[in-house]
Amino acid sequence: MTALFALATSLMWGLADFGGGLLTRRTPALTVVVVSQSIAVVVLGAIVAATGAWSEAGPQLWFAVAAGLVGPVAMLAFYKALALGPMGVVSPLGSLGVTVPVAVGLVLGERPGLLQFAGIGVAFAGVILAGGPQFRGAPVQRQAVLLTLLAAFGFGAVMALIAEASTTVTGLFLALFVQRVTNVTAGGTALYVSVRRGGRALPEDGGMQAVRSALPALAFVGLADVAANGTYAMAARQGPVTVAAVLASLYPVVTALAARGFLGERLRGVQAAGAGLALVGTVLLATG
């Protein structure tokens, strides 16, 4: 079950990142974050009310608050990096965030077996190669690298924090709701400050109408991100965090395949090899 939940996490994060990256090419990144997460708040609020999850409130929700503060910073940095491109820089470096929950798991005493250690190494190498690493080019590319490293650390911290925020399924709904409310509060504040300083909140082409027309895509991005956090928390609770975190970090492979399927981007040889290695690493982790 750990492998199943973690791979579902990769699928949803990969598709959410692909959608978020496309949206930020037209709409300011902060607006994408705030609107997509606001939609998630409404849906999660309804689920919390329907399941009576408020009864699960406790000190562990501070982990969700912390995740909610870190998350918008990571998402904003990642979406800006995706908008700057190239994907060959952003996708593979974004996976470095896996080192945070893996390190936490090792510190807490987890010791994967030999096959799992091999799987971690193979899968991680596969993820890096699947992005088709490109480190040469203009200063914009160096800015994308810095933004992606910031996002990677933030995503890794969110993975570690959300895994500690609940112990039951209903508690997980409440933790995700608290996390998203914090996301929207922090992101909305940043958007307000940005507008006050002369920044844009709406697309230059189309304004509010463009945002309205993008609502289905924004909803998908927000809800897929929430679902991915939920399945990751369940994966980390079912099995070793070190295994769950590595399998969940395969999302750059999904992003690259989505770009191939929807945008017609051709996979380079190194990307195809990386996807194959990621698959081999997944098998080793799941069977180890």
In short:
The chain has 13 helices and no strands.
Explain this structure.
This protein has 288 residues and is mainly alpha-helical. Helix content is 79%, strand content 0%. The protein has helices spanning 2-23, 29-51, 61-84, 87-94, 99-107, 114-130, 139-163, 169-196, 207-213, 215-238, 241-248, 251-263, 269-287. Helix 4 runs antiparallel to helix 12 (251-263), helix 5 runs antiparallel to helix 11 and helix 10 (215-238) runs antiparallel to helix 11 (241-248). The longest helix has 28 residues, at 169-196. The two termini are 13 Å apart.
Number of strands: 0
Low-confidence stretches: none
Mean pLDDT: 82
Write the element-wise H/E pattern from the N-terminal end onward: HHHHHHHHHHHHH
Task: Enumerate how many helices there are, as a single number.
Answer: 13
Molecular shape: globular
The proportion of strand residues reads under 5%
| Biggest sheet statistics | none
Query: Which structural class is indicated by helix and strand composition?
Result: mainly alpha
Helix content: over 70%
Quaternary organisation of the protein chains: single chain
State the distance separating the first and last CA atoms.
13 Å
Radius of gyration: 18 Å
